[in-house]
């Protein structure tokens, strides 16, 4: 009985404030789409890092003949220097480095020839143009800086290179995109909160007569306020559902059907990920509506 | 039932108190008229009973509850035991007569089968059977006030408060409303009515509490309205309509009663007689009848005393 009555009141309120309700739905939809997009971007970044960081290594290039770098003053790195470097890696970086592999000039040339059988940009290179190097696989790729600090400046080492650096611009771009999305989401969420507040207030004003009588005959405050709170919550929830549907469609048609086919060597976010963040979006919507209505009703309607 | 102990109410700091050291004791089942000029504190008195306001000083007891200490979450329970009727009826224009009365029960969570039996019963009792589906604007003023009374009474409150219930009605229609309030009082419900209507007060001969600038200046049993020129000096010895917010008193014009009210009055009398017969036959089958018979017991006790 009570539930039915409250639902009837809610429906009536939604119908009476249709335009406001629609605007709440749209604003929540847009803001939560941004929240969801930011979350998906972060998931994509994590996925890429997980996949790529396992493949990449830190390359410690040894001095070749005729390098201008000060640590290479002695010319090409000799066996002694190589042994010293290996010793440093074992003793000082034992915890960080998972595997060490020494690539000779010859191996480097083989790998080069395999990759560029017709020569690189028209020049023919020889074994002596190649550099010997240590390839270090790190237990934790984030520890690159430590490796760099320990090895750079040692005799026989020309340069320490983190292959991750190649991906950095991409990750920076993705991270900035998520920051922008989060920023826009913040602005839109604020707008949504204000709109919900206004909608509830409007609804309360248009039903002042009813609520006055409800109080008079002894309806509890919760019972008087519940329809308004539910109105805000329902509008926000519909917006959240629309956002989930929108993100799902975007991932399905933009990522899974199009991007994944044209650039297929990357592991993309999937519609499953959208469903993973769906509860988060719904929770944000409910919290948004809850906070807005609590604030409004606390201020406007006391017994 | 209602006890005011040295109650004061000041709305704004520095303003003249709306009520100043008022002590009044209303017994269970009493019918009390509150009279006094506009601004004498009648409405404040009623608002304090409903706990729409808290007193600035003193104590207010209603149905055994100390309202000055009542926490706000208990206020709804208090109000369920009090019915309230206004001069401007305060009906919901987009709901039918039936829905208006049912609304009062729905919002306090009464089960549907209870509503389905109680509402037609009370509508018949106030003389509105057959008009359940009408909207308030399709009814005469007297009928609208009957709907409002039905709504106030449908939950069988122990106390009925009425703030100028006849203020918008012509004398004949007012008389019908007064008969109804009297009937409600005879079921054992305590009735407190604020009014300017001297004819009604004089005719009913009930207890009169007169307020003037927030003080009780008279409290008499079986009393009359008093000298109009003293109570309402600005108006003189002519009856007025007291519309809240309107400072200029308007002369009351006698109009012919609307046919709807006369019919309603007749139907209501019949329903009441019918009900009385039921009571005699079968004293405790319905809640309303229970109250009626309990009341007659109380009335007898009063007579004996």
TrEMBL record, chain A:
Forms a membrane-associated complex with FtsE. Belongs to the ABC-4 integral membrane protein family. FtsX subfamily. Keywords: Cell cycle, Cell division, Cell membrane, Membrane, Transmembrane, Transmembrane helix. It is a multi-pass membrane protein. This is Cell division protein FtsX. It holds the Pfam family FtsX_ECD. The chain crosses the membrane at residues 20-41, 179-200, 237-256, 276-298. The keyword Membrane applies. Residues 184-299 form the ABC3 transporter permease C-terminal domain. The gene is ftsX. It comes from Isoptericola chiayiensis. It is found in: Cell membrane. Its main location: membrane. PANTHER family: CELL DIVISION PROTEIN FTSX. InterPro entries: ABC3_permease_C (IPR003838), FtsX (IPR004513), FtsX_actino (IPR047929), FtsX_ECD (IPR040690).
Automatic annotation (TrEMBL), chain B:
Gene3D superfamilies: P-loop containing nucleotide triphosphate hydrolases. PROSITE patterns: ABC_TRANSPORTER_1, ABC_TRANSPORTER_2. Residues 259-305 are annotated as: Disordered. Keywords: ATP-binding, Cell cycle, Cell division, Cell membrane, Membrane, Nucleotide-binding. It is a peripheral membrane protein. Its main location: membrane. NCBIfam families: FtsE. Belongs to the ABC transporter superfamily. Part of the ABC transporter FtsEX involved in cellular division. This is Cell division ATP-binding protein FtsE. It comes from Isoptericola chiayiensis.
């Amino acid at each position: 009985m009570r539930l039915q009555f409250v639902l009837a009141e809610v429906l009536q309120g939604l119908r009476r404030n249709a335009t406001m309700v629609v605007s709440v739905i749209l604003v929540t939809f847009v803001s939560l789409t941004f929240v969801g997009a930011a979350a998906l971007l972060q998931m994509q970044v994590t996925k890429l890092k997980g996949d790529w960081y396992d493949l990449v290594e830190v390359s410690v290039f040894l001095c070749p003949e005729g390098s201008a770098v000060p640590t290479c003053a002695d010319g090409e790195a000799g066996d002694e220097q190589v042994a010293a470097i290996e010793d440093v890696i074992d003793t000082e970086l034992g915890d960080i480095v998972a595997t060490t592999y020494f690539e000779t000039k010859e191996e480097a040339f083989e790998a080069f020839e395999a990759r560029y059988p017709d020569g690189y940009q028209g020049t023919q290179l020889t074994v002596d143009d190649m550099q010997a190097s240590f390839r270090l696989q790190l237990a934790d790729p984030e520890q690159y800086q430590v490796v760099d600090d320990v090895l750079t400046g040692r005799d026989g080492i020309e340069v320490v290179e983190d292959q991750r650096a190649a991906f950095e611009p991409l990750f920076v771009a993705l991270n900035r995109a998520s920051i922008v999305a989060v920023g826009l989401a913040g602005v839109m969420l604020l707008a949504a909160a204000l709109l919900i507040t206004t909608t509830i207030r409007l609804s309360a004003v248009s039903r002042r007569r009813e609520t006055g009588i409800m109080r008079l005959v002894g309806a509890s405050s919760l019972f008087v306020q519940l329809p308004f709170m539910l109105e805000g919550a329902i509008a926000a929830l519909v917006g959240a559902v629309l956002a989930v549907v929108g993100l799902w469609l975007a991932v399905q048609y933009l990522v899974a059907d199009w991007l994944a086919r044209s650039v297929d060597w990357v592991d993309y976010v999937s519609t499953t990920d959208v469903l993973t963040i769906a509860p988060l979006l719904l929770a944000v919507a409910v919290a948004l509506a809850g906070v807005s209505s609590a604030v409004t009703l606390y201020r406007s309607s006391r017994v | 039932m209602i006890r005011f102990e040295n109650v004061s109410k000041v709305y704004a700091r520095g303003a003249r108190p709306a009520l100043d050291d008022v002590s009044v004791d209303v017994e269970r089942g009493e019918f009390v008229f509150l009279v006094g000029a506009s601004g004498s504190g009648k409405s404040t008195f009623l608002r304090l009973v409903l706990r729409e306001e808290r007193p600035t000083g003193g104590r207010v007891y209603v149905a055994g509850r100390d309202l000055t200490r009542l926490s706000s979450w208990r206020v709804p329970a208090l109000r369920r035991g009090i019915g309230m009727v206004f001069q401007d009826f305060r009906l919901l224009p987009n709901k039918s007569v039936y829905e208006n009365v049912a609304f009062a029960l729905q919002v306090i969570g009464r089960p549907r089968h209870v509503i389905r039996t109680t509402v037609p019963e009370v509508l018949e009792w106030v003389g509105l059977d057959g008009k359940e589906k009408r909207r308030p604007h399709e009814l005469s003023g007297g009928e609208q006030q009957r709907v409002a009374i039905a709504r106030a009474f449908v939950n069988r409150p122990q106390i009925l408060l009425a703030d100028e219930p006849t203020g918008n009605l012509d004398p004949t229609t007012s008389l019908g409303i007064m008969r109804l309030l009297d009937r409600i009082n005879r079921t054992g419900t305590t009735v407190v009515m604020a009014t300017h209507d001297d004819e009604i007060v004089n005719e009913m001969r009930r207890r009169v509490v007169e307020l003037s600038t927030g003080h009780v200046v008279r409290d008499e049993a079986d009393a009359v309205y008093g000298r109009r020129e003293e109570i309402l000096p600005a108006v003189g010895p002519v009856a007025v309509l007291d519309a809240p917010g309107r400072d200029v008193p308007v002369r009351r014009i006698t109009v012919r009663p609307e046919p709807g009210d006369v019919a309603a009055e007749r139907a209501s009398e019949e329903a009441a007689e019918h009900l009385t017969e039921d009571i005699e036959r079968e004293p405790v089958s319905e809640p309303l009848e229970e109250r009626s018979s309990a009341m007659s017991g109380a009335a007898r006790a009063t007579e004996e005393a």
